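# nightly structure sweep
# worker-07 picked up a monomer target from the shared queue
# config: single-sequence mode, recycle default, output format = structure tokens
# input follows
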Amino acid sequence: MNITMKKIIIIFSAILLTVSLAYSHPGGLDSHGGHTNKKTGVYHFHKKVNQPPSTSDAYKREDWPHWTDEDSDCQNTRMEILIRDNIGMLKFKRNKHCNVTWGKWKCPYTGKEFTKASDIDIDHIVPLSHAHKTGGAGWSREKKREFANDPLNLLSVEDNINQGKGDKAPDEWRPPQKNYWHEYALRWRKVKKKYGLYISPSEEKALEDMEM
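# output follows
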């Protein structure tokens, strides 16, 4: 190979490297095709690396065991989340620390406060049926149970607002309290990232809007 040809190859390689650097992301992208802006703390999604899952299996709530007592302390998952989110004086049924009856909870979705445990639902931030449709349909029963009882995905909220939310994603439903939007979007992302669940383009857009 003559000197002229070597020079051409070197110059061409340098051009390719320059173009590659110009279009690459300086901070690198995570496995979901996004990154967190270190200055603002906002997560940005740059490319879709996972595809919409397809399944013909119908969602059945009984396939997702929830409110289990994994540590056998007589407090199931619902009771443990009520205790975690309580901001008042707790009272238990029949003086046993198994079933919470009274306390004080402030619903992050509405800002309303409640003292009766029966007025509180434990919301799956990423609903079970939504998880089923976005990648969880083929999970084992054990993984479905893990998801259904994961404290990261659970929140004490007003029962009526939880029923109104149903299985809607952020592009269909948002908490009435706008000051909770940012935290809600972050929690939604964390759950989906932890379990590798698909985020649709419209869902991503809604999350970005809530994070602003």
